[in-house]
Amino acid sequence: MNNTTINGISQWQLCRYPIWTLFTLLLLSIGSAAFASNDEAGHKVNFAYTESMNLENDLVTIRFRALEEGKTSAEVSQKINRQMQQAIGSINKARFKTIQTENYQIFPVYGKNRQIAHWRGQQTLRLEAASDQKISPTLQKLESLLSYQSLQFSLSTERRQKAQEQLLLSAIQGYQAKAKQIANAFGKQKFVLLQTDLQANHTAPVMHANSLRMEAMAASAEPALEEGSSQVTLYISGTMLLEND
Questions:
Q1: Mean pLDDT of the region 64-78
Q2: Given the DSSP bridges, would you call strands 206-208 and 147-154 parallel, antiparallel or unpaired?
Q3: Exposed, middle or buried by CB within 10 Å (0-12, 13-18, 19+), for 202?
Q4: For the domain that residue 166 is a member of, what is the CATH number?
Q5: Could you read off the pLDDT of 104-126 as tens digits, one per residue?
Q6: pTM here?
Q7: What mean pLDDT do residues 58-65 have?
Q8: 127 and 186 part of one domain
Q9: Mean pLDDT of the chain
Q10: Which parts of the chain are beta strand (E)?
Q11: Which of residues 121, 154, 187 is at a domain's end?
Q12: Which of 47, 25, 29, 49 is nearest to 37 (CA)?
């Protein structure tokens, strides 16, 4: 009678194992065969390719803040609402892509003996406009009503998406060319791309912090602020199989 073995265990030894143990040994045997088959198919290589594009920023984002104090939270809320309504009413809305309030907060300020001394609240007004828009007059009005927080230049969503679309074709072509280069370096003529992951990102916007204080806005001409540029990057990573000849 043939003495069959599984993973080095003979047939008569198998009879001594419980059924769940035999099932586990069978799975291990199948797994080992699959791994060996994969090795016989070829050699897997993980690699990556990156392509970038620099673009001039076309969007400016300005933030102002209303900050108020009062004896009650209701009083503070009324002051902030009144201040924001007056500020938004002074804006030439046609020149802005976005006019939005955010970060509304009201909280107690404690004094001695952990008793509430008064209340304080704040709210931010965020404005977005094309970087070539003449917005100085509006910003001058807002500075007389609210506290200036920050100004930054960045890429608009539309321009960033368009850049990513332009990068996509050339990045994929470069990715495929790199796969061929790797295969040639290994002395292989045949390969298969098993998996590909694409990831797009861009650099942080150019910030102009509170140190500017908008003094340039008081001049008759537009302020000379550096808009800068942003880098849009498409990162492709994947796995290739170098097939055996």
A1: 96
A2: antiparallel
A3: middle
A4: 3.30.110
A5: 999 999 988 889 999 999 999 99
A6: 0.66
A7: 94
A8: no
A9: 80
A10: 5-6, 9-10, 42-56, 59-70, 98-110, 116-130, 147-154, 191-202, 206-208, 229-243
A11: 154
A12: 29
* 21-46 per-position pLDDT tens digit: 433 333 333 333 323 234 567 889 99
Residue type, 115: Q
Instruction: Indicate the residue among 120, 154, 188 that finishes a domain.
Output: 154
Domain count, the chain: 2
Instruction: Kindly tell me the burial class for residue 155, based on how many C-beta atoms sit within 10 Å of its own C-beta (0-12, 13-18, 19 or more).
Output: buried
Residues 54 and 165 grouped into a single domain: yes
On whether residue 128 sits in a domain, the answer given is: yes
The whole domain housing 203 covers 40-58+156-240
Instruction: Please check whether residue 213 is in contact with residue 148, taking contact to mean a CB–CB distance below 8 angstroms.
Output: yes
pLDDT at residue number 204: 61
| Measured distance CA(82)–CA(47) in Å, rounded | 58
Pair 46, 166 in one domain: yes
pLDDT tens-digit readout, 179-216:
999 999 999 988 999 999 999 886 666 565 544 445 54
